[in-house]
Every structure is written in C-alpha cells, then in structure tokens.
Design brief:
By secondary structure, the protein is an all-alpha fold. Helices cover 68% and strands 0% of the residues. The longest helix has 20 residues. The protein is flat, with a radius of gyration of 36 Å.
C-alpha cells in the first residue's frame, strides 16, 4: 500500500518562516533545520513541496529583513536542485531588485543546463549591472568548461567593475588560463588579487617566478594571495612525482622567501598554513629558524618535523646553532625537530647536544630531550636516562620508557652498559626503584628476578605495586608465584588487585586456591581482579563460586566477570541463572549474560536472547544480536528479520544484518 502523502500545516509554515527574521541567529538556524526536515518528508514533485519552495523564493525576492533573505537562500540551497524549477519560474515573471537575488540562487542551485541562461545574462549589455555581476559569480559556482568559456569571452568586453566579477568567477571555478592572459590583470590594483589566484590554477611552471615576485608585494592582501596561489600551483605541478623530483624541477625565486616567512604566523590560518606548506614542499632550510617559535602549535610542529626529515643532514647545522642559543623556547623547539631527523643525519656533536639537555632543570626541556633520544635511539644516552629515572611523576616514567625503547635496538656495548647499571645496588624505595621494575620486565631481563622479588616486599607501596605488576610480565613458572600469592594479603588494595592479575597472566594452577580466597576481599576491585584471573584458568572448582558471586555480590563489575566464567560450563543450572540475569537491573550484567548465552546450546538460550530485543537500551539489543550470530541457531532467523524491520538504532540494525547474513549462510551450507 502506498504511503499517504504528508501535508504541511500552513500556520506552522508561517511560524517557521517568520522565525527567519529573528534577530537571534540560533532561532533562525533552528527554524531552517525544521523546515528542511519538513521538506524532506514531502514528495519533490508534489504540490506541498511546490508551495513550500515558492514561499522560500518569495522570502528571497521580497524579504522582511536581510537576515530573512539570507536564511531563505540558505534553506533553498539545502533543498538542492529540486527547488530550482520554482526559482526559474519566479525569474521568468520578475524584474527589478529581486532579480539579482534570483540569479544568485540559480548560480547556487544550477548546473550545466543553466550555463546558457547565465551566460546570456552576462553578455546582455542592456541587463542590470548587478544581475550581470551575479551571473558571473553563478557561472563561477557552476564551473566547467562551458561556464569558463562564457567568462573568458567577457574578459575584454566587460567594464572595469564587471571585469572584477568575471575574474572572480574564473578564480572560483579554478580556470586554467595562459600566463599571458593573466599578466595584464596583475598591474591593476582592483584586479590584482583575482589575477594572482588565477596564477595558482594555471599549471604553468613559469607562474612560480611571477608569484615569487608577488610574495614581496607592497600590499599585504596580494602577498597573502600569492603565497596561497604558489602553494596550490606547486601541489598541482608536483602531481604524481616524488617530492624530491618535484623540488628539483620547481623553484621559487630566492627573493620571495622573505615574504613567505612573514606569513608563517599570519592571523588567517589558511594563509599561514599555505606559507608553511610551501616552505616544506620546497625544502627551504631557511624556514627552520622561523618555524621554531611556532612549534607550540601541533600542526606547525608536525609540518616542521616533516621539513627536517626531508632536509636530512642539511638540517643539522641550523638545529645545532639553535641548541647552542640558550633560549628555552628555541631549545625546546630544536629538540622537538631533532627528534624528527633520520638517525644517520645526526652527527656526534648534535647527539651530544641533545644528551646534555637530558638533565636540564626545566622539565619541559628535559622531556623534549628524552623524546628526541627515544626517537633517534641514541644508545649513548642510556646513562643519563638512568639517572633521570630518579624523577617522580611523568618525567621519570618517560625516561624509563625511553630506556626500554633505546635498549631494544642498542648494540651489544650499550646493553652491557645498561646491565652494569642494573647490577648496582637497587634502591628499595622511591621512583627509581619503581621504574627499574618496569625496565627489567619489559626487556625480559630474567637475571634480575631476585631484585624484583626483593622489591615486592618494599615499604614503599608504589614500589611494591610496580614489582608485583612486573612479575606478571615475566612469563612462565618461577619463584615469583609464591611472592604474588603472599601479595594477595597486602595492606594496599591496588597491590592485591595487581597480584591477582599477575597470577592470572602467569597461569599457575597452584594460584587457584589463593585467588578463590581473594574473591572474598572487602574491596570490589580486588574481587573483580581475582574472578577475572580465575576465569583464565577455566577452573571447574571455581564455577560454584561464580554462581555465588552472580547471586550475592553487590558489585556489578565483579558479577560481570563471574558471568563470563559461567559461559562455557554447559550446566543446566548455569543456563537458568544466565537467563534470569537477562532481567538484571544493571545493564552491564544483562549484556554479560547475553554474551555468555551465546555458548549454551539449548534452545531456551535462543528464546532468552530474542526476548532481549524488547529492552529499551540499544546496547543490550546489540549484544543480543551479536550473541545470536555467534550461536548459529537457524531458528532465530525469522524473529531476527521481524525485529530488524522495526529496529530504530543504526548500530543495532548493523548487528542484526550481520546476524541474519551469518544465519542465512549457515542454513545454505546445512
């Protein structure tokens, strides 16, 4: 049966269009959104849509305020080409002031079919000058060869003001004009900026030389336009070439760079980014010193690092000078950029310059130096990084991580140096002790297992925690298992929880009994970690405890882990429990029950999952769909199809589609 046509309430329509004249931008925006939504519900060829479109066109031609006209224009633009016939209808009937607004709309909504109309208006000397200007702008919006031919044909015939609109239309359509055609317009201050922009789309290498001269033009606006055009032209000319080939073939005059540098920090982001991009493409070494004060901006920092990477060894000298300057901001920027260099381009002098700053008193400078050392894998810095591990907080952690990254790729001599440092007496408290735990575990230095075992009994809670976490990273059976078992009774709940997780990671069956005791801990995070570890063992004895937890534990997080442990039991009583948990008050528990039901074979599990599609939460319905797909029960196929027709959520719809496809495939192969 065909869907009944929707109708537009005239009073509501009047109210919305009336809001277009509101002084508040948010009111105008909200009304426009509602009107566009309303229009999408109407058939594009119906009388209701026609009435709405005509009202909006009327609002453009005879607006109550300037804001109302702009909002009507914007709304018609969002309605798209379907509104164009009503604009053309009114255009054929109208003359006078509203004619310019209608031509603007034709340019916004039109396509190749409207080029002839706009071209005729542009060439009609008897037409109003504003209408001709709007036609030139509209042809630029439509673009394409036919529109560009109309605009080029008018270049010599148009008067001074109209010529400006014609040039702007050509700029907007990115017309590709010969350099000789553009050059005359670079002399006139009125047309210079449009001419410069056209150079950017000319695809003529010779235009780079012209743009280079304009980069130091006396007018700031022309300089900005020249830099944007040069960046666009370089990108067009480079094409599919490698960056190195393009740089060798293309060139900007040396005199142009002073103008480019001045625009690195222009208030217009499009101008500053074009200038920086141009310097990066050209591999201009002189840009480095100008970029350093700006690297606090992440975008600039990223481009500056690319420039340093492309310059290679050429960047070493200016960066070394920047390091020696002593200014903190410049030093930090230089360290950031040095980290982007290739290791082969960092000479010993520059490397030592970076290493000196590892122990700088300013944490920002020290952090930048550590990052540079890590990226460059300067194994000569291991000793300085080791001393920096004594720092509390982020700086010490960064130094420890850098040691791990550097040592993994370091030559044997550097590994011996690290080994000698680690064989010294370990501190029993403080940040360095914690960081040493991380280093030996991440590098799998099993010779230092006795040191870890000793730190697991430290008086410093942070050190005990790091040692307990580290013992879980050293895989396999070792004497750390007994230490971790003792740590389950630690006074600090974070240490107890970490001990549970480490025991689970080691997979030691003898840890099951202590972990079962830990499921009675008074702190929920410890109980959750203990249950999570036990589930990894798939211990049969623990399943009775999972049922107790699911029925009695006050923490939903602990229950979620326990439910996961019941997923593969295959026992009837566990299935009944999981089905009852599908109506739990906590959503996460309900989702966990749905995931667990995927592994129980009786048909009752399928029925319970289908029942979850009545849940008001989308994520519960999605979990049910995913579980049914995993079960492979083909009897769920028809219920899933029915649910899919009424499901409002896109993510759930996607899961349903995948489940239906999976079950259809299973049925076809049966």
């Amino acid at each position: 049966m065909a869907e009944p046509a929707r109708s537009v309430d005239a009073a509501h329509l009047d109210e919305l269009i009336g809001q277009f004249a509101s002084a508040q931008w948010i009111d105008r925006k909200r009304a426009a959104e509602q009107l566009v939504h309303l229009a999408t519900q109407l058939p594009g060829t119906g009388s209701e849509f026609a009435s709405l479109a005509r009202r909006l066109v009327q609002g453009v031609v005879e607006p109550s305020t300037v804001d109302a006209r702009a909002t009507c224009h914007e709304t018609l633009a969002r309605l798209g080409r379907g509104a164009l016939p009503f604009v053309l209808e009114r255009f054929d009937q109208r003359s006078g002031a509203g004619r310019r607004a209608l031509v603007d709309l034709i340019g916004t909504l039109g396509g190749a079919d409207e080029v002839l109309l706009l071209g005729g208006l542009l060439q009609d000397a008897a037409e109003d000058a504003n209408v001709r200007a709007a036609a030139a702008t509209g042809l630029g919006e439509i673009g394409g060869d036919a529109a560009q031919r109309c605009l080029v044909a008018m270049l010599r015939e148009a008067g001074e003001v109209l010529r400006l609109f014609v040039l702007d239309g050509l700029r907007q359509s990115r017309a590709r004009l010969a350099l000789a055609t553009i050059e005359p317009y670079l002399e006139d201050p009125l047309t210079c900026r449009c001419g410069v922009a056209l150079l950017g789309s000319s695809r003529d290498p010779a235009a780079l030389g012209v743009l280079g001269g304009l980069c130091v033009h006396r007018s700031a606006g022309v300089r900005a336009e020249a830099v944007k055009a040069a960046a666009a032209l370089w990108a067009d000319l480079a094409g599919e070439e490698s960056d190195g080939d393009a740089t060798a073939r293309l060139a900007l005059p040396a005199s142009a760079w002073s103008g480019v540098y001045e625009l690195f920090d222009d208030r217009d982001a499009a101008v500053s980014r074009a200038a920086i991009t141009l310097a990066v493409r050209a591999r201009d070494v002189g840009a480095l010193s100008r970029l350093m004060p700006l690297v606090a901006d992440p975008w600039v920092a990223e481009r500056a690092v690319v420039l340093v990477s492309r310059l290679g060894c050429v960047a070493s000298e200016p960066l070394e000078r920047a390091l020696a300057a002593g200014d903190l901001a410049t030093t930090g920027a230089a360290l950031t950029l040095i980290g982007g260099m290739r290791r082969s381009c960092v000479d010993p002098g520059l490397a030592q310059g970076v290493i000196r700053y590892l122990e700088h008193e300013d944490p920002t400078i020290a952090a930048a130096a550590i990052e540079a050392v890590r990226r460059l894998e300067l194994h000569e810095a291991i000793g300085s990084l080791f001393r920096r591990c004594a720092d509390d907080g982020a700086l010490g952690e960064q130094a420890a991580s850098a040691i791990v990254d550097v040592a993994r790729e370091a030559p044997q001599a550097a590994r011996r140096e690290l080994d000698e440092l680690l064989h010294r007496a370990w501190p029993q408290e403080g940040p360095r002790a914690s960081h040493l735990c991380r280093i030996v575990c991440q590098l799998d230095l099993r010779d230092h297992l006795p040191d870890l075992l000793a730190l697991a009994r430290s008086r410093d809670v942070a050190v005990r925690l790091a040692a307990v976490q580290g013992l879980g990273l050293l895989g396999g059976a070792h004497e750390g298992i007994s230490v971790l078992t003792l740590a389950l009774a630690d006074e600090d709940m974070q240490v107890r929880a970490a001990a549970c997780r480490s025991l689970g990671a080691l997979g030691a069956q003898e840890a099951c009994e202590p972990l079962l005791s830990a499921t009675l801990d008074h702190h929920a995070s410890v109980r959750a970690a203990a249950v999570q570890a036990l589930v990894l063992f798939d211990n049969v004895v623990a399943r009775n405890r999972y049922r107790e937890i699911a029925l009695e534990d006050p923490s939903p997080t602990v229950i979620v882990y326990a439910v996961a442990g019941l997923a593969r039991s295959g026992r009837e009583e566990d299935l009944s429990l999981l089905m009852s948990l599908c109506s739990a008050t906590d959503v996460e528990v309900t989702k966990a029950a749905a995931r667990a039901l995927a592994y129980h074979t009786p048909h009752r599990a399928t029925a319970a999952l289908i029942g979850l599609f009545g849940h008001d939460r989308w994520d519960v319905r999605r979990a049910a769909a995913l579980a049914l797909a995993r079960r492979g029960d083909r009897t769920a196929l028809e219920p899933l199809r029915r649910v899919s027709q009424a499901e409002p959520d896109a993510l759930v719809q996607q899961a349903l589609s995948e489940a239906i496809a999976s079950l259809e495939k299973a049925r076809a192969s049966a």
